[in-house]
Protein backbone atom coordinates (compact mmCIF):
# COMPACT_ATOMS: atom_id res chain seq x y z
CA UNK A 1 0.00 0.00 0.00
CA UNK A 2 1.10 3.46 -0.72
CA UNK A 3 1.64 5.97 2.06
CA UNK A 4 -0.87 8.72 2.24
CA UNK A 5 0.36 12.18 1.18
CA UNK A 6 1.46 14.38 4.03
CA UNK A 7 0.36 17.96 4.43
CA UNK A 8 2.72 20.98 4.40
CA UNK A 9 3.06 21.15 8.16
CA UNK A 10 3.95 17.53 8.43
CA UNK A 11 6.66 17.86 5.75
CA UNK A 12 8.23 20.84 7.47
CA UNK A 13 8.32 19.03 10.76
CA UNK A 14 9.99 16.06 9.16
CA UNK A 15 12.71 18.18 7.58
CA UNK A 16 13.46 19.93 10.87
CA UNK A 17 13.66 16.62 12.65
CA UNK A 18 16.09 15.33 10.03
CA UNK A 19 18.62 18.22 10.17
CA UNK A 20 18.35 19.48 13.70
CA UNK A 21 19.65 18.04 16.85
CA UNK A 22 18.60 20.22 19.74
CA UNK A 23 21.14 21.10 22.39
CA UNK A 24 20.11 23.53 25.11
CA UNK A 25 17.58 24.94 22.73
CA UNK A 26 20.25 26.03 20.08
CA UNK A 27 21.03 24.41 16.73
CA UNK A 28 24.40 22.65 16.65
CA UNK A 29 25.52 24.22 13.32
CA UNK A 30 24.77 27.78 14.51
CA UNK A 31 26.71 27.25 17.69
CA UNK A 32 29.81 26.07 15.82
CA UNK A 33 29.72 29.07 13.51
CA UNK A 34 29.74 31.44 16.47
CA UNK A 35 32.80 29.71 17.91
CA UNK A 36 34.68 30.09 14.64
CA UNK A 37 33.81 33.77 14.40
CA UNK A 38 35.01 34.29 17.96
CA UNK A 39 38.35 32.63 17.13
CA UNK A 40 38.82 34.87 14.10
CA UNK A 41 38.05 37.92 16.18
CA UNK A 42 40.55 36.91 18.85
CA UNK A 43 43.22 36.30 16.22
CA UNK A 44 42.60 39.73 14.73
CA UNK A 45 42.99 41.35 18.14
CA UNK A 46 46.26 39.51 18.72
CA UNK A 47 47.63 40.54 15.34
CA UNK A 48 46.60 44.15 15.97
CA UNK A 49 48.37 44.16 19.33
CA UNK A 50 51.51 42.72 17.80
CA UNK A 51 51.42 45.34 15.03
CA UNK A 52 51.07 48.12 17.60
CA UNK A 53 54.02 46.70 19.53
CA UNK A 54 56.12 46.55 16.40
CA UNK A 55 55.23 50.14 15.52
CA UNK A 56 56.14 51.30 19.00
CA UNK A 57 59.49 49.52 18.78
CA UNK A 58 60.06 51.02 15.35
CA UNK A 59 59.38 54.55 16.62
CA UNK A 60 61.76 54.04 19.53
CA UNK A 61 64.40 52.70 17.17
CA UNK A 62 63.94 55.62 14.75
CA UNK A 63 64.23 58.14 17.57
CA UNK A 64 67.35 56.45 18.89
CA UNK A 65 68.95 56.37 15.44
CA UNK A 66 68.00 60.02 14.82
CA UNK A 67 69.54 61.06 18.14
CA UNK A 68 72.72 59.15 17.34
CA UNK A 69 72.81 60.67 13.86
CA UNK A 70 72.35 64.21 15.16
CA UNK A 71 74.99 63.65 17.82
CA UNK A 72 77.46 62.44 15.21
CA UNK A 73 76.58 65.33 12.93
CA UNK A 74 77.03 67.84 15.73
CA UNK A 75 80.39 66.30 16.56
CA UNK A 76 81.43 66.61 12.92
CA UNK A 77 80.33 70.23 12.83
CA UNK A 78 82.27 71.04 15.98
CA UNK A 79 85.34 69.31 14.59
CA UNK A 80 85.10 71.27 11.34
CA UNK A 81 84.59 74.51 13.25
CA UNK A 82 87.63 73.81 15.43
CA UNK A 83 89.70 73.08 12.34
CA UNK A 84 88.49 76.28 10.68
CA UNK A 85 89.38 78.32 13.76
CA UNK A 86 92.81 76.74 13.91
CA UNK A 87 93.30 77.40 10.21
CA UNK A 88 92.25 81.03 10.61
CA UNK A 89 94.63 81.51 13.47
CA UNK A 90 97.55 80.01 11.58
CA UNK A 91 96.69 82.03 8.49
CA UNK A 92 96.46 85.23 10.51
CA UNK A 93 99.85 84.62 12.09
CA UNK A 94 101.32 83.82 8.70
CA UNK A 95 99.90 86.92 7.05
CA UNK A 96 100.96 89.13 9.92
CA UNK A 97 104.49 87.82 9.75
CA UNK A 98 104.53 88.49 6.00
CA UNK A 99 103.30 92.02 6.72
CA UNK A 100 105.97 92.54 9.36
CA UNK A 101 108.73 91.36 7.03
CA UNK A 102 107.33 93.51 4.25
CA UNK A 103 107.43 96.61 6.41
CA UNK A 104 110.97 95.87 7.49
CA UNK A 105 112.04 95.38 3.90
CA UNK A 106 110.35 98.62 2.81
CA UNK A 107 111.90 100.54 5.68
CA UNK A 108 115.32 99.08 5.00
CA UNK A 109 115.15 99.81 1.28
CA UNK A 110 113.92 103.38 1.81
CA UNK A 111 116.50 104.09 4.50
CA UNK A 112 113.80 105.49 6.77
CA UNK A 113 114.46 103.05 9.56
CA UNK A 114 116.40 99.94 10.32
CA UNK A 115 114.41 96.71 10.62
CA UNK A 116 114.56 97.00 14.39
CA UNK A 117 112.84 100.38 14.25
CA UNK A 118 110.00 99.48 11.95
CA UNK A 119 106.58 99.86 13.60
CA UNK A 120 104.76 96.73 14.63
CA UNK A 121 101.13 97.82 14.83
CA UNK A 122 98.27 95.42 15.27
CA UNK A 123 97.47 94.50 11.70
CA UNK A 124 94.98 92.91 9.47
CA UNK A 125 95.95 90.74 6.66
CA UNK A 126 97.33 92.73 3.77
CA UNK A 127 94.97 92.29 0.91
CA UNK A 128 95.10 93.91 -2.43
CA UNK A 129 91.62 95.16 -3.13
CA UNK A 130 90.27 96.76 -0.08
CA UNK A 131 87.01 97.25 -1.71
CA UNK A 132 86.84 94.87 -4.57
CA UNK A 133 86.86 91.69 -2.60
CA UNK A 134 85.60 93.42 0.48
CA UNK A 135 82.39 94.55 -0.97
CA UNK A 136 81.33 91.02 -1.65
CA UNK A 137 80.45 90.01 1.86
CA UNK A 138 83.66 89.75 3.81
CA UNK A 139 86.00 89.55 0.88
CA UNK A 140 87.64 86.58 -0.69
CA UNK A 141 90.50 86.56 1.77
CA UNK A 142 88.52 87.34 4.86
CA UNK A 143 89.55 85.43 7.89
CA UNK A 144 86.41 86.00 9.80
CA UNK A 145 86.30 87.30 13.34
CA UNK A 146 89.06 86.41 15.72
CA UNK A 147 88.82 86.12 19.44
CA UNK A 148 89.10 89.38 21.38
CA UNK A 149 92.63 90.53 21.72
CA UNK A 150 93.97 88.49 18.81
CA UNK A 151 96.58 90.53 16.99
CA UNK A 152 95.49 93.55 18.91
CA UNK A 153 91.94 93.52 17.61
CA UNK A 154 88.75 92.19 19.20
CA UNK A 155 87.66 90.41 16.10
CA UNK A 156 88.82 90.86 12.57
CA UNK A 157 87.62 90.19 9.13
CA UNK A 158 90.74 90.34 7.17
CA UNK A 159 90.25 91.03 3.56
CA UNK A 160 90.10 94.77 3.37
CA UNK A 161 86.66 94.90 2.21
CA UNK A 162 86.57 98.43 1.17
CA UNK A 163 88.92 98.28 -1.70
CA UNK A 164 91.43 100.94 -2.40
CA UNK A 165 92.56 100.03 -5.79
CA UNK A 166 95.99 100.73 -6.85
CA UNK A 167 98.73 100.05 -4.48
CA UNK A 168 98.72 103.19 -2.53
CA UNK A 169 95.52 104.75 -3.51
CA UNK A 170 92.74 104.35 -1.01
CA UNK A 171 89.44 104.09 -2.64
CA UNK A 172 87.06 106.28 -0.98
CA UNK A 173 83.52 105.90 -1.68
CA UNK A 174 84.50 106.95 -5.13
CA UNK A 175 86.35 106.06 -8.15
CA UNK A 176 89.12 103.71 -7.70
CA UNK A 177 92.67 103.12 -8.67
CA UNK A 178 94.01 99.95 -10.21
CA UNK A 179 97.22 98.27 -9.27
CA UNK A 180 98.74 98.91 -12.66
CA UNK A 181 98.56 101.98 -14.75
CA UNK A 182 95.84 101.84 -17.36
CA UNK A 183 94.45 98.69 -15.74
CA UNK A 184 90.73 98.31 -15.84
CA UNK A 185 88.67 98.55 -12.70
CA UNK A 186 85.87 96.06 -12.10
CA UNK A 187 82.39 97.27 -12.81
CA UNK A 188 80.07 98.19 -9.95
CA UNK A 189 78.56 94.75 -9.55
CA UNK A 190 81.93 93.08 -9.23
CA UNK A 191 83.55 95.13 -6.52
CA UNK A 192 81.75 97.52 -4.42
CA UNK A 193 83.83 100.01 -2.60
CA UNK A 194 86.91 101.63 -3.74
CA UNK A 195 88.66 104.49 -2.23
CA UNK A 196 91.23 105.31 -4.80
CA UNK A 197 90.33 106.25 -8.26
CA UNK A 198 91.24 104.65 -11.42
CA UNK A 199 89.70 104.89 -14.82
CA UNK A 200 87.57 102.27 -16.32
CA UNK A 201 86.37 101.73 -19.82
CA UNK A 202 82.89 102.39 -20.99
CA UNK A 203 79.96 104.50 -19.89
CA UNK A 204 79.71 108.16 -19.33
CA UNK A 205 79.85 108.97 -15.70
CA UNK A 206 82.35 108.49 -12.95
CA UNK A 207 81.39 105.32 -11.22
CA UNK A 208 83.44 104.18 -8.23
CA UNK A 209 84.47 100.55 -8.00
CA UNK A 210 86.45 98.76 -5.35
CA UNK A 211 89.85 97.33 -5.65
CA UNK A 212 92.37 96.31 -3.10
CA UNK A 213 95.81 97.75 -2.88
CA UNK A 214 98.89 96.78 -1.03
CA UNK A 215 99.73 99.03 1.90
CA UNK A 216 102.63 100.92 0.43
CA UNK A 217 102.07 100.52 -3.27
CA UNK A 218 101.38 103.79 -5.01
CA UNK A 219 98.79 103.53 -7.75
CA UNK A 220 98.69 105.82 -10.73
CA UNK A 221 95.51 107.85 -10.75
CA UNK A 222 93.80 108.19 -14.08
CA UNK A 223 91.26 110.81 -14.68
CA UNK A 224 87.97 109.21 -15.69
CA UNK A 225 86.00 111.05 -18.30
CA UNK A 226 82.72 109.60 -17.35
CA UNK A 227 81.55 107.32 -14.62
CA UNK A 228 82.89 106.51 -11.22
CA UNK A 229 82.30 102.97 -10.16
CA UNK A 230 80.68 101.93 -6.98
CA UNK A 231 83.91 101.57 -5.18
CA UNK A 232 85.61 104.64 -6.14
CA UNK A 233 87.09 103.63 -9.42
CA UNK A 234 86.35 105.70 -12.42
CA UNK A 235 84.62 104.02 -15.24
CA UNK A 236 84.64 105.31 -18.79
CA UNK A 237 87.22 106.36 -21.26
CA UNK A 238 89.99 107.77 -19.16
CA UNK A 239 93.06 109.83 -19.80
CA UNK A 240 96.21 109.10 -17.83
CA UNK A 241 97.02 111.51 -15.09
CA UNK A 242 100.15 112.32 -13.23
CA UNK A 243 101.12 109.94 -10.45
CA UNK A 244 99.95 110.90 -7.01
CA UNK A 245 102.41 112.64 -4.75
CA UNK A 246 103.16 111.13 -1.41
CA UNK A 247 103.74 114.36 0.45
CA UNK A 248 103.48 118.10 0.21
CA UNK A 249 105.97 119.73 -2.15
CA UNK A 250 109.07 121.32 -0.66
CA UNK A 251 109.14 125.05 -0.34
CA UNK A 252 111.51 127.21 -2.30
CA UNK A 253 115.08 127.44 -0.99
CA UNK A 254 115.39 129.93 1.80
CA UNK A 255 111.62 130.08 2.36
CA UNK A 256 111.71 127.96 5.48
CA UNK A 257 111.56 124.27 6.39
CA UNK A 258 109.60 121.86 4.21
CA UNK A 259 106.46 120.17 5.58
CA UNK A 260 108.51 116.98 5.92
CA UNK A 261 111.12 118.77 8.00
CA UNK A 262 108.43 120.33 10.15
CA UNK A 263 106.83 116.92 10.68
CA UNK A 264 110.18 115.46 11.77
CA UNK A 265 110.78 118.33 14.22
CA UNK A 266 107.31 117.80 15.71
CA UNK A 267 107.82 114.06 16.14
CA UNK A 268 105.04 113.15 13.70
CA UNK A 269 106.68 109.83 12.83
CA UNK A 270 104.46 107.75 15.10
CA UNK A 271 103.66 105.22 12.37
CA UNK A 272 107.38 104.53 11.92
CA UNK A 273 108.04 103.63 15.56
CA UNK A 274 108.66 100.08 16.73
CA UNK A 275 105.91 99.72 19.31
CA UNK A 276 107.54 96.68 20.90
CA UNK A 277 110.64 98.67 21.82
CA UNK A 278 108.95 101.83 23.11
CA UNK A 279 108.99 102.58 26.84
CA UNK A 280 105.77 101.92 28.72
CA UNK A 281 105.34 105.67 29.30
CA UNK A 282 104.89 106.16 25.55
CA UNK A 283 102.51 103.25 24.90
CA UNK A 284 99.16 102.20 26.30
CA UNK A 285 97.83 98.75 25.47
CA UNK A 286 94.12 98.09 25.78
CA UNK A 287 91.84 95.21 24.91
CA UNK A 288 92.46 94.96 21.18
CA UNK A 289 94.04 98.39 20.69
CA UNK A 290 97.29 100.28 21.20
CA UNK A 291 97.81 104.01 21.81
CA UNK A 292 101.21 105.55 21.02
CA UNK A 293 101.92 109.02 22.44
CA UNK A 294 104.15 111.62 20.84
CA UNK A 295 106.91 112.16 23.39
CA UNK A 296 107.70 115.57 21.84
CA UNK A 297 104.12 116.72 22.40
CA UNK A 298 103.59 115.48 25.94
CA UNK A 299 100.62 113.49 27.16
CA UNK A 300 97.89 116.04 26.65
CA UNK A 301 95.27 113.61 25.41
CA UNK A 302 94.19 110.03 25.97
CA UNK A 303 91.77 107.52 24.42
CA UNK A 304 89.72 104.60 25.78
CA UNK A 305 87.58 102.04 23.94
CA UNK A 306 83.89 102.00 24.90
CA UNK A 307 82.15 99.64 22.45
CA UNK A 308 83.10 97.39 19.53
CA UNK A 309 80.30 96.93 17.01
CA UNK A 310 80.68 94.01 14.61
CA UNK A 311 79.06 94.14 11.16
CA UNK A 312 78.52 91.63 8.38
CA UNK A 313 80.40 93.70 5.82
CA UNK A 314 82.70 96.67 5.43
CA UNK A 315 81.68 99.68 7.52
CA UNK A 316 81.72 102.46 4.93
CA UNK A 317 80.68 105.37 7.14
CA UNK A 318 79.85 106.38 10.71
CA UNK A 319 77.84 109.42 11.86
CA UNK A 320 76.48 110.69 15.19
CA UNK A 321 73.09 112.26 15.77
CA UNK A 322 73.18 115.95 16.73
CA UNK A 323 72.39 115.16 20.37
CA UNK A 324 75.17 112.57 20.45
CA UNK A 325 72.87 109.81 21.68
CA UNK A 326 72.95 107.62 18.59
CA UNK A 327 75.49 106.41 16.04
CA UNK A 328 74.59 105.39 12.50
CA UNK A 329 76.75 103.10 10.36
CA UNK A 330 76.46 102.21 6.68
CA UNK A 331 77.44 98.86 5.17
CA UNK A 332 76.16 96.47 2.51
CA UNK A 333 72.40 97.11 2.05
CA UNK A 334 71.85 98.01 5.69
CA UNK A 335 72.16 101.11 7.86
CA UNK A 336 72.39 100.45 11.59
CA UNK A 337 71.62 102.83 14.44
CA UNK A 338 73.21 102.14 17.83
CA UNK A 339 72.57 103.53 21.28
CA UNK A 340 75.83 105.28 22.15
CA UNK A 341 75.52 104.73 25.88
CA UNK A 342 74.89 100.98 25.77
CA UNK A 343 76.33 100.07 22.38
CA UNK A 344 73.14 98.15 21.60
CA UNK A 345 71.52 98.08 18.16
CA UNK A 346 68.37 100.18 18.29
CA UNK A 347 67.34 100.24 14.64
CA UNK A 348 68.09 98.38 11.41
CA UNK A 349 67.14 100.03 8.13
CA UNK A 350 67.05 98.05 4.87
CA UNK A 351 65.14 98.62 1.66
CA UNK A 352 63.66 95.19 0.91
CA UNK A 353 62.50 96.37 -2.50
CA UNK A 354 66.03 97.11 -3.74
CA UNK A 355 67.48 94.72 -6.30
CA UNK A 356 69.52 91.91 -4.76
CA UNK A 357 71.38 91.08 -7.94
CA UNK A 358 74.55 92.80 -6.70
CA UNK A 359 75.91 94.28 -3.50
CA UNK A 360 74.50 97.64 -2.48
CA UNK A 361 76.89 99.48 -0.20
CA UNK A 362 75.68 102.49 1.72
CA UNK A 363 78.48 105.01 1.36
CA UNK A 364 77.02 107.88 3.37
CA UNK A 365 74.67 108.34 6.33
CA UNK A 366 73.49 111.54 8.00
CA UNK A 367 70.97 112.33 10.75
CA UNK A 368 68.59 115.22 10.41
CA UNK A 369 69.24 117.91 13.08
CA UNK A 370 66.08 116.92 14.99
CA UNK A 371 67.11 113.25 14.97
CA UNK A 372 63.86 112.06 13.36
CA UNK A 373 65.33 111.07 10.01
CA UNK A 374 68.39 109.32 8.67
CA UNK A 375 69.49 109.97 5.10
CA UNK A 376 71.46 107.26 3.30
CA UNK A 377 73.28 107.39 -0.03
CA UNK A 378 74.21 104.23 -1.87
CA UNK A 379 75.51 102.63 -5.03
CA UNK A 380 72.10 102.58 -6.69
CA UNK A 381 72.26 106.40 -7.11
CA UNK A 382 69.32 107.01 -4.76
CA UNK A 383 69.02 109.01 -1.55
CA UNK A 384 66.67 107.44 0.97
CA UNK A 385 65.42 109.47 3.91
CA UNK A 386 64.21 107.11 6.63
CA UNK A 387 61.69 107.84 9.34
CA UNK A 388 63.61 106.31 12.23
CA UNK A 389 60.53 105.81 14.44
CA UNK A 390 58.75 103.66 11.85
CA UNK A 391 61.75 102.27 9.99
CA UNK A 392 60.12 103.28 6.70
CA UNK A 393 61.36 105.40 3.81
CA UNK A 394 59.85 108.87 4.08
CA UNK A 395 61.48 110.48 1.04
CA UNK A 396 63.28 109.10 -1.99
CA UNK A 397 65.44 111.47 -4.04
CA UNK A 398 66.54 110.37 -7.50
CA UNK A 399 68.53 112.16 -10.16
CA UNK A 400 72.18 111.28 -9.65
CA UNK A 401 73.66 109.26 -12.47
CA UNK A 402 76.35 107.51 -10.45
CA UNK A 403 77.00 106.28 -6.93
CA UNK A 404 76.50 108.65 -4.02
CA UNK A 405 79.54 109.10 -1.78
CA UNK A 406 78.69 111.85 0.65
CA UNK A 407 75.66 113.44 2.35
CA UNK A 408 75.16 116.33 4.73
CA UNK A 409 72.10 118.00 6.27
CA UNK A 410 71.85 121.77 6.64
CA UNK A 411 71.43 122.99 10.20
CA UNK A 412 67.81 124.01 9.56
CA UNK A 413 67.03 120.45 8.51
CA UNK A 414 65.37 121.50 5.28
CA UNK A 415 68.14 120.82 2.80
CA UNK A 416 70.36 117.84 2.03
CA UNK A 417 73.55 118.09 -0.02
CA UNK A 418 74.80 115.03 -1.89
CA UNK A 419 78.05 114.32 -3.74
CA UNK A 420 78.31 111.71 -6.48
CA UNK A 421 80.67 110.09 -8.92
CA UNK A 422 78.59 111.72 -11.67
CA UNK A 423 80.66 114.91 -11.06
CA UNK A 424 77.91 116.84 -9.35
CA UNK A 425 76.92 118.16 -5.96
CA UNK A 426 73.15 118.43 -5.61
CA UNK A 427 71.09 120.24 -3.00
CA UNK A 428 67.63 118.85 -2.24
CA UNK A 429 64.64 120.48 -0.57
CA UNK A 430 63.06 118.21 2.04
CA UNK A 431 59.69 119.94 1.81
CA UNK A 432 59.25 119.83 -1.95
CA UNK A 433 61.39 116.79 -2.69
CA UNK A 434 63.03 118.71 -5.53
CA UNK A 435 66.67 119.28 -6.45
CA UNK A 436 67.14 123.05 -6.11
CA UNK A 437 70.85 123.25 -7.05
CA UNK A 438 73.11 121.16 -9.27
CA UNK A 439 76.78 122.09 -8.97
CA UNK A 440 78.93 120.48 -11.66
CA UNK A 441 82.69 119.98 -11.77
CA UNK A 442 85.22 118.23 -13.99
CA UNK A 443 85.60 115.03 -11.99
CA UNK A 444 83.92 112.75 -9.48
CA UNK A 445 82.88 114.20 -6.11
CA UNK A 446 84.27 112.21 -3.22
CA UNK A 447 83.26 114.22 -0.15
CA UNK A 448 81.31 117.29 0.89
CA UNK A 449 80.44 119.39 3.92
CA UNK A 450 77.91 122.16 4.61
CA UNK A 451 79.17 125.10 6.65
CA UNK A 452 77.66 125.53 10.14
CA UNK A 453 75.62 128.54 9.02
CA UNK A 454 74.35 126.68 5.95
CA UNK A 455 75.62 129.29 3.50
CA UNK A 456 78.37 127.31 1.84
CA UNK A 457 79.01 123.83 0.49
CA UNK A 458 82.55 122.49 0.16
CA UNK A 459 83.48 119.41 -1.86
CA UNK A 460 86.56 117.32 -2.49
CA UNK A 461 87.18 115.72 -5.86
CA UNK A 462 89.28 113.28 -7.82
CA UNK A 463 90.94 116.20 -9.58
CA UNK A 464 92.86 117.20 -6.37
CA UNK A 465 90.81 120.41 -5.93
CA UNK A 466 88.63 121.53 -3.02
CA UNK A 467 85.76 123.78 -4.12
CA UNK A 468 83.43 126.01 -2.12
CA UNK A 469 80.06 127.22 -3.43
CA UNK A 470 77.42 129.62 -2.24
CA UNK A 471 74.64 127.17 -1.35
CA UNK A 472 71.83 129.57 -2.31
CA UNK A 473 73.09 130.91 -5.61
CA UNK A 474 75.28 128.02 -6.70
CA UNK A 475 78.15 130.43 -7.34
CA UNK A 476 81.65 128.98 -7.05
CA UNK A 477 83.40 131.22 -4.54
CA UNK A 478 86.64 129.31 -3.98
CA UNK A 479 88.98 126.82 -5.66
CA UNK A 480 91.56 125.55 -3.18
CA UNK A 481 94.48 124.35 -5.29
CA UNK A 482 97.82 125.57 -6.58
CA UNK A 483 101.38 124.94 -5.40
CA UNK A 484 100.23 124.51 -1.81
CA UNK A 485 97.24 122.39 -2.73
CA UNK A 486 96.79 118.64 -2.75
CA UNK A 487 98.72 116.53 -5.24
CA UNK A 488 96.22 113.69 -5.41
CA UNK A 489 92.51 112.98 -5.05
CA UNK A 490 90.79 114.58 -2.04
CA UNK A 491 88.71 112.06 -0.10
CA UNK A 492 87.50 114.03 2.88
CA UNK A 493 86.57 117.65 3.70
CA UNK A 494 85.09 119.25 6.80
CA UNK A 495 84.34 122.79 7.94
CA UNK A 496 85.73 123.83 11.30
CA UNK A 497 83.15 124.79 13.96
CA UNK A 498 83.61 128.51 13.30
CA UNK A 499 82.81 128.04 9.61
CA UNK A 500 85.81 130.14 8.59
CA UNK A 501 88.26 127.32 7.94
CA UNK A 502 88.25 124.01 6.14
CA UNK A 503 90.27 120.82 6.55
CA UNK A 504 90.88 118.26 3.83
CA UNK A 505 92.51 114.84 3.58
CA UNK A 506 93.96 113.33 0.43
CA UNK A 507 95.56 110.32 -1.20
CA UNK A 508 98.79 112.36 -1.15
CA UNK A 509 98.96 111.40 2.57
CA UNK A 510 98.57 114.97 3.77
CA UNK A 511 96.00 116.95 5.74
CA UNK A 512 95.59 120.60 4.84
CA UNK A 513 94.06 123.45 6.83
CA UNK A 514 92.57 126.18 4.67
CA UNK A 515 91.75 129.72 5.75
CA UNK A 516 88.70 130.58 3.71
CA UNK A 517 88.38 134.25 4.59
CA UNK A 518 90.80 137.07 3.97
CA UNK A 519 90.61 139.18 5.97
CA UNK A 520 89.41 136.87 8.73
CA UNK A 521 86.65 139.22 9.79
CA UNK A 522 85.04 139.25 6.37
CA UNK A 523 81.85 137.25 6.09
CA UNK A 524 82.46 136.43 2.44
CA UNK A 525 84.46 133.36 1.53
CA UNK A 526 87.41 134.48 -0.59
CA UNK A 527 91.15 134.34 -0.81
CA UNK A 528 91.46 130.78 0.48
CA UNK A 529 94.98 130.04 1.69
CA UNK A 530 96.60 126.78 2.76
CA UNK A 531 97.57 127.73 6.29
CA UNK A 532 99.16 124.40 7.19
CA UNK A 533 100.11 121.06 5.68
CA UNK A 534 100.16 118.19 8.16
CA UNK A 535 102.23 115.08 7.47
CA UNK A 536 102.44 111.92 9.57
CA UNK A 537 100.38 109.13 8.04
CA UNK A 538 102.18 106.52 5.96
CA UNK A 539 99.31 105.93 3.56
CA UNK A 540 96.22 107.50 2.03
CA UNK A 541 94.10 109.67 4.28
CA UNK A 542 90.47 108.66 3.94
CA UNK A 543 88.70 110.70 6.60
CA UNK A 544 89.34 113.95 8.48
CA UNK A 545 87.25 115.79 11.06
CA UNK A 546 87.54 118.21 13.95
CA UNK A 547 86.27 118.01 17.51
CA UNK A 548 83.33 120.36 18.25
CA UNK A 549 85.55 122.65 20.32
CA UNK A 550 88.09 122.79 17.42
CA UNK A 551 90.81 121.82 19.85
CA UNK A 552 91.92 118.70 17.96
CA UNK A 553 91.82 117.26 14.48
CA UNK A 554 91.23 113.57 13.77
CA UNK A 555 92.22 111.54 10.74
CA UNK A 556 91.77 107.97 9.57
CA UNK A 557 94.04 106.31 7.06
CA UNK A 558 94.65 103.27 4.94
CA UNK A 559 97.65 102.67 7.22
CA UNK A 560 94.97 101.45 9.69
CA UNK A 561 95.63 104.14 12.26
CA UNK A 562 93.71 107.07 13.71
CA UNK A 563 95.70 110.13 14.73
CA UNK A 564 94.91 113.20 16.82
CA UNK A 565 96.56 116.47 15.80
CA UNK A 566 97.05 119.91 17.31
CA UNK A 567 95.69 122.28 14.63
CA UNK A 568 97.76 125.21 15.90
CA UNK A 569 101.07 123.63 14.87
CA UNK A 570 100.18 120.39 13.04
CA UNK A 571 101.77 118.21 15.69
CA UNK A 572 100.58 114.63 16.20
CA UNK A 573 99.46 114.06 19.78
CA UNK A 574 98.81 110.34 19.65
CA UNK A 575 98.26 107.45 17.28
CA UNK A 576 95.54 104.85 17.84
CA UNK A 577 95.84 101.39 16.28
CA UNK A 578 92.76 99.23 16.70
CA UNK A 579 91.54 98.17 13.27
CA UNK A 580 92.95 95.46 11.04
CA UNK A 581 92.03 97.19 7.84
CA UNK A 582 91.85 100.73 6.53
CA UNK A 583 90.10 103.26 8.77
CA UNK A 584 87.51 104.52 6.30
CA UNK A 585 85.54 106.89 8.51
CA UNK A 586 86.32 108.91 11.65
CA UNK A 587 83.60 111.00 13.27
CA UNK A 588 83.59 112.94 16.58
CA UNK A 589 80.38 113.33 18.53
CA UNK A 590 78.79 116.82 18.27
CA UNK A 591 78.55 116.75 22.06
CA UNK A 592 82.28 116.17 22.52
CA UNK A 593 84.23 113.51 24.46
CA UNK A 594 83.38 110.67 22.04
CA UNK A 595 84.34 109.64 18.54
CA UNK A 596 83.64 106.67 16.29
CA UNK A 597 85.62 104.79 13.66
CA UNK A 598 84.53 102.55 10.80
CA UNK A 599 86.82 100.16 8.97
CA UNK A 600 87.24 97.64 6.20
CA UNK A 601 87.63 94.96 8.88
CA UNK A 602 83.83 95.00 9.36
CA UNK A 603 83.97 96.71 12.75
CA UNK A 604 82.79 100.08 14.00
CA UNK A 605 84.16 101.26 17.33
CA UNK A 606 83.08 103.85 19.87
CA UNK A 607 85.79 105.69 21.78
CA UNK A 608 86.19 108.23 24.54
CA UNK A 609 88.87 110.94 24.32
CA UNK A 610 89.82 113.20 27.19
CA UNK A 611 92.58 115.63 28.27
CA UNK A 612 95.40 114.08 30.23
CA UNK A 613 97.72 115.98 32.53
CA UNK A 614 101.46 115.37 32.62
CA UNK A 615 101.22 114.24 36.23
CA UNK A 616 99.10 111.25 35.22
CA UNK A 617 100.87 110.49 31.96
CA UNK A 618 102.91 107.72 33.50
From TrEMBL:
Boundaries of every Transcriptional repressor Tup1 N-terminal domain copy: 32-107
Alphabetically ordered keywords of this record: Repeat, Repressor, Transcription, Transcription regulation, WD repeat
Domain of life from the UniProt record: Eukaryota
SUPFAM superfamilies hit by this protein: WD40 repeat-like
InterPro entries: Tscrpt_rep_Tup1_N, WD40/YVTN_repeat-like_dom_sf, WD40_PAC1, WD40_repeat_CS, WD40_repeat_dom_sf, WD40_rpt
Compositional bias (Low complexity): 144-155, 170-216, 225-260
Region (Disordered), start-end ranges: 101-262
WD repeat positions: 355-396, 397-438, 438-479, 483-524, 534-575, 576-607
Polar residues: bias regions: 125-143, 156-169
Protein name: Transcriptional repressor rco-1
Protein species of origin: Wickerhamiella sorbophila
